[in-house]
Amino acid sequence: MKYFLSFIFIYLLMSGCKPDKDKFQKTEISTGEKVYSLEKLDSIKIPYLGNPTVHDIDPSSRTVLFMEHMLSSQEIILADFDGTIRNTFSKWGDVPDSYGNLIAPLLIDNSNSFIAYGSRGFLTYDFNGELLSRVKHPDFDYFGFNRIGLGGGMEKSGNRLLYVNIEIPDYSKNERKFYEELKILTWLDQSTGEKEPFISFPNSSIFRGDNFFFNNAWDPAFTIADNFVYVVFGVEPVIYSYDKHPPYSLISKTNLELPEYNYFKGAEKITSDVSFFGQRRTSGRILNIKKIGEFFIIVYFPGFDFTDTQEQFENKSREESMLFQKRMNEKYPHKVAILNNKGKVLSHFPMEGFIPGSMVLRDNEIWMLESFDTESEQDYFRIFKFELNIE
């Protein structure tokens, strides 16, 4: 079995807008007489000068867990909701209780401990940095890792953790067998180190057709709710729900009616041409999904339309390329959509001022990381709490 290494996405969290209680942007559409939005309720401001990467937040213990990732060191930092730095320590490098290289973001386990899933196994530390337990990987000694940052981590369900499966089949991506054998998610048992990959592409998925896709076009957005695992396969605008218990049966398929969503539907063959692998930049993609009651909240990139996709791959001067990218960034902001359980969009609006994909649900509360201000150096970062508002 091969192991896949993808790029690390580091969330730099420094901001410049004032905290206030208002609705998250203006909704573009509404249904009937009701208007659906996300309303800011509160914010946490952590004074910090550097390049912090927030890993987790825990309202119960009022703890923010973040790191400073540098080439020669990695500092773990815990802060209170009032902004006070509680503790700082390192578990990286040549130390007996090192996690090695992180495979997933750190995860707060309870009111006084957190889990590090790394190349040396599952390690649990208390908030003072003392090692509480370590369970090594039972069948291999090396992992790759995925996105590191809030919103890209493991989800806990009982004694198990749900995460992206980093193993890939022993087939070329030019073979249909690759798509048939690929398992998208995995259950992790932190008490034994065992893993259980599950969920293949269903026959109805675009990834089980005749076309081929750029690397990681299927990167999943997933969540656990109502005893089900809800997952979206990257670019494909469909929510698949599975029973979270063996044999993990597919329960339902919900098509997402996202307006002006432009996504890559595959090509007849894999090529090295920029018009193929460059679709990673232009294709629509679902980045995050959460379920609150009967509603889904998703964060997505809408994707370039056909004309802009063609222009993306035309030869340009450096200046022309920069101007084009600036125009595309303004034309195609990441968006938030609120949908009912049938996939109908009740509201959607630009996700401006927040890190795409950073949405987490903690104690049934929605939290997002504020974007950093590229215009000036900030000595703090903020995390906002939202609630689903229906008027």
Descriptive notes:
This is 6-bladed beta-propeller protein. This protein has 391 residues and is mainly beta. The protein has a single domain, classed as Neuraminidase (6 Propeller), CATH 2.120.10. The chain is built from five helices and 26 strands. The radius of gyration is 21 Å and the shape is globular.
> Shape from CA axes?
globular
Low-confidence region ranges: 1-21
β content, as a range? 35-45%
Rg computed from alpha carbons, rounded to a whole number of angstroms: 21 Å
Instruction: Briefly note the CATH topology name.
Output: Neuraminidase
Tags for this model:
four-stranded antiparallel β-sheet, 6-bladed beta-propeller protein, mainly beta, single chain, Neuraminidase, 5 helices, 391 residues
Summed up:
This protein has 391 residues and is mainly beta. The protein has helices at 176-181, 274-277, 279-282, 306-312, 318-331; strands at residues 2-3, 36-47, 52-58, 63-69, 74-80, 85-89, 107-110, 113-118, 121-126, 131-135, 155-157, 160-164, 167-168, 185-189, 195-198, 220-225, 228-233, 238-243, 250-255, 285-292, 295-301, 335-340, 345-350, 360-362, 365-369, 380-390.
Compile the SSE list and pairings:
Blueprint: E1 2-3, E2 36-47, E3 52-58, E4 63-69, E5 74-80, E6 85-89, E7 107-110, E8 113-118, E9 121-126, E10 131-135, E11 155-157, E12 160-164, E13 167-168, H1 176-181, E14 185-189, E15 195-198, E16 220-225, E17 228-233, E18 238-243, E19 250-255, H2 274-277, H3 279-282, E20 285-292, E21 295-301, H4 306-312, H5 318-331, E22 335-340, E23 345-350, E24 360-362, E25 365-369, E26 380-390
Antiparallel strand pairs: 1-13, 2-26, 3-4, 4-5, 5-6, 7-8, 8-9, 9-10, 11-12, 12-14, 14-15, 16-17, 17-18, 18-19, 20-21, 21-22, 22-23, 24-25, 25-26
